[in-house]
Amino acid sequence: MAEFGALFERARNSPEPGDATACALATASADGTPSVRMVLLKGFDDRGFVFYTNYGSRKAQDIEENPRAALCFHWISIKQQVRVEGSVERVSEEESDIYFASRGRLSRLGAWASKQSQPLASRGDLLRRFAAVELRYPVGPVPRPQFWGGYRLRPERIEFWSNKSHRLHDRRVFSRSGEGWTVRRLYP
């Protein structure tokens, strides 16, 4: 995790445009149907990688049916890629409340208005739902909806890929082994 943190800081401080928190999240349903989408990393520590969503979304449904997932960070600005695989669990309600409170007011209202991943007849319907939520919470705090919160991917495998000349890339894989990690190199 220390190595990931160092790369993340390099990507975040790169002068080239890009969002270092953007990563691809791959999940699979109970029957193994894969799905991948971009999410934003909202935190990481020795316990794992955290992202947030509506618990009714497709990603959340996949995770509830099959609590394993993968993340892929591709930081072209620093010529690095990190792949993470592991189990997924919900973060505590307290962690979700703290992060939700840190979001902008309109984003908090938007979380209430969206039935993420559900069919939507028209954009107008979404805007009407948003207006109704604005009326419900005209001032003051906007509480976190119980259908919205975070997940933590607990890494079991982390691969660091560094772009090198002549396609002789450097690949190292860390695999969880008991309380520690084993590391090995892979051919590019």
What does this structure look like?
With 188 residues, the chain is α+β, with helices and mostly antiparallel strands. 28% of the residues lie in helices and 39% in strands. The protein contains 5 helices and 9 strands. It has helices at 2-12, 58-65, 93-102, 105-113, 123-136; strands at 22-28, 34-40, 43-45, 48-54, 68-75, 80-90, 148-162, 170-177, 180-186. Strands 1, 2, 3, 4, 5, 6, 7, 8 and 9 form a 9-stranded antiparallel sheet that branches. Strand 8 and strand 9 form a beta hairpin. Helix 4 crosses helix 5. The radius of gyration is 19 Å and the shape is elongated. The two termini are 22 Å apart.
Which class best fits the helix and strand makeup?
alpha+beta
Question: What is the beta-strand fraction?
Answer: 35-45%
Q: Mean pLDDT, as a whole number?
A: 96
Report on the biggest sheet.
9 strands, antiparallel
Query: First CA to last CA: what distance?
Result: 22 Å
Q: What is the H/E order?
A: HEEEEHEEHHHEEE
Oligomeric description of these chains: single chain
Classify the helix fraction into a percent range: 25-40%
- How would you sum up the global shape? elongated
